[in-house]
Design goal:
CATH superfamily of the largest domain: Fumarylacetoacetase-like, C-terminal domain
Structural class: mainly beta
Order of helices and strands: EEEHEEEHEEEEEEHHEEEHEEE
Radius of gyration: 17 Å
Helix content: 10-25%
CATH topology of the largest domain: Fumarylacetoacetate hydrolase, domain 2
Number of domains: 2
Strand content: 35-45%
Shape: globular
CATH class of the largest domain: Alpha Beta
Number of helices: 5
Largest sheet: 12 strands, mixed
């Protein structure tokens, strides 16, 4: 199923995407399950929101060898973890706002894992049982600040620096799907998720050995080569095959 979070009459709700319509759910699906209200609304008539507001956004850096090479860095034997604040999240169609502190902001299209239950110390074998579904993220980065700061919190944490959506695909199975980004229709990144240095089960297991993941938490799985500067007035698209496309303008 594709689970969307959306605004209806000014109130956030969840729904199941059914073609051009949303089947409205009765509350949060991780709490109330998939009980429906019986109401259907046209998808075109609602404002899609970020599909989850997590307690934390855990990010995996340097997870594609070609991206590590373009950054001039070394491959780590273990996943590289950093965090983004939940205040960085925006939804589909919301604007990425370029901060005055940075002269070079870049896009990073990524497959995002959405956790479905309390997850602590799980094995790789059991990791996927703890997943609610998958969505798309753009790990927007102030690249010049990333280079000058001793750590990445500021460069990765500005408001609007984590577009997320358009929905959660609960039946997605990671198996060679393509991650792609485009700026004004021009392809910038394009790679198979099979090229990840650390795959999805390993990422979930590794993160859960170091911190407890809560329902709705998000893990960004890293970005392939082709990171590119974004400028005001442009349209940024991040696509994951089998999930959809996340579109955001830049201001």
């Amino acid at each position: 199923m594709r689970i969307a979070r959306f605004s209806l009459n000014g109130e956030p709700k969840f729904g199941i995407v059914d073609g051009p319509e949303l089947v409205v759910l009765n509350g949060h699906p991780l709490v109330q399950g998939y009980d429906t209200t019986g109401e259907r609304v046209p998808l075109k008539d609602v404002k899609l929101l970020a599909p989850t507001i997590p307690s934390k956004i855990v990010c995996i850096g340097k997870n594609y060898a070609d991206h590590v090479a373009e950054m001039g860095r070394e491959i780590n034997p273990e996943p590289t973890i950093f965090l983004k604040p939940s205040s960085a999240i925006i939804g589909p169609g919301d604007s990425i706002v370029l901060p005055v502190q940075s002269e070079r902001v870049e896009l990073e299209a990524e497959l995002a894992i959405v956790i479905g239950q309390i997850t602590r110390g799980v094995t790789e074998k059991d990791a996927l049982e703890h997943v609610w579904g998958f969505t798309i993220a753009n790990d927007v980065t102030a690249r010049d600040l990333q280079a000058t700061d001793d750590q990445w919190a500021r460069a990765k944490g500005f408001d609007t620096f984590c577009p997320l959506g358009p929905w959660i695909e609960t039946e997605f199975v990671p198996d060679g799907q393509i991650v792609e980004s485009r700026i004004d229709g021009e392809t910038k990144q394009q790679a198979s998720i099979d090229l990840m240095l650390h795959n999805v089960p390993k990422i979930i297991s590794y993160v859960s050995q170091n911190m407890t993941l809560l329902p709705g938490d998000v893990i960004l799985t890293g970005t392939p080569a082709g990171i590119s500067q974004i400028s005001s007035g442009q349209i940024v698209e991040c696509e994951v095959e089998g999930i959809g496309t996340l579109l955001n303008p830049v201001l």
